[in-house]
Design brief:
- The chain has one domain (4-109): Orthogonal Bundle (Arc Repressor Mutant, subunit A), CATH 1.10.10.
- The chain has a two-stranded antiparallel ribbon with strand order 1-2.
- It contains four helices and two strands; from the N terminus they run αααββα.
- With 110 residues, it is α+β, with helices and mostly antiparallel strands.
Length: 110
Amino acid sequence: MLTDEYRYKILKLVQEKPDISQRELAKALGVSLGKTNFCLKALVEVGLLKVSNFRNSKNKLAYMYVLTPKGIEHKATVTINFLKHKIKEYEQLAHEIAELRNEVTDDLQE
């Protein structure tokens, strides 16, 4: 359930904004709050994230997510894998677009 894409996006967002709420994270990922909670717990369990409590300015108890050294290393690996996947998708789409252009050109010439 926790794909490289979600791992990458969560680790990136948490690294950029450690005090991001689960609700904000869910919105940024375009997934439910429950799925976000599940993903964060999974990353904590494998030692990629550490969670600490703090009180924000509104006097509510909140959490801060911090990438562990293992998490930073894993983020680099996941980033490379995610990039490779996106490049492959791009190349497939570029090929498909070229085929469609050729098809349209052939149809117009007939």
